[in-house]
Specification:
disordered N terminus
Length: about 210
């Protein structure tokens, strides 16, 4: 399940916390009156998630469209693997839904040259153009992440190698790719950025 996958990723990936990130003035979080744990699971949580992800995305892409970030959060907010998805988006498209390198496209860099027919047969896409649509692109990414994490449950780095390279090329040890390592580095930075901003606003409690 996604929850189990999320727990595994949280345990399997250890990374040093980044230096305190500075949120641009234009997207600083507003101080809430009070948030209970239940309220954090409500629509208010989605709004907080949106503000933090927008702040992170703008650090790397000042032109990012807030409407796109809002839709990304709406699709991913309940997923335990959302931070991994955000890391893939940062690596593959810098949060631009129209990104295309001639082989893969969209937010999560889906290889449309190879995977379009399978995604249409699975009911995830309707046409090739869905690669540039936010929700179908993210759902395609989840589809392949689930497949490859299931194949390599003890090695998230290899699961990401499968995700980025496909089964055929991933098995060829002569082919070198730094995409998995770089994505995991980004994942650590994103998690640190989130925790820092939640702590700053008094919305994140650590055990004492």
């Amino acid at each position: 399940t996604l929850i189990a996958i999320g727990i595994f990723i949280g345990v399997a990936i250890t990374s040093s916390r980044p230096a305190q990130a500075v949120v641009p003035d234009s997207v600083k979080l507003t101080q809430p009156a009070a948030y209970t744990p239940d309220e954090m699971i409500s629509m208010q949580k989605e709004d907080i998630e949106f503000k933090i992800l927008l702040a992170y995305a703008r650090l790397h892409n000042p032109r990012v469209d807030p409407v796109n970030i809002r839709q990304i959060v709406s699709v991913t907010k309940d997923l335990e693997i959302r931070f991994l998805l955000y890391a893939i988006m940062r690596k593959e498209s810098n949060f631009e839904p129209d990104a295309d390198n001639g082989l893969a496209g969209g937010l999560c860099g889906i290889n449309y040259k190879v995977n379009t027919n399978e995604l249409i047969e699975a009911g995830i896409w309707r046409t090739l153009e869905d690669v540039y649509e936010i929700e179908p692109n993210i759902k395609a990414s989840i589809f392949y992440l689930q497949r490859y994490i299931k194949k390599s449950p003890q090695d998230i780095k290899y699961a990401l190698r499968l995700y980025f390279m496909g089964d055929r090329y991933a098995r060829d040890k002569r082919r070198i790719s730094n995409y998995p390592e770089h994505t995991l580095e980004i994942l650590g930075r994103i998690r640190g950025f989130y925790e820092f901003n939640l702590l700053k606003e008094g919305l994140y409690r650590t055990s004492s």
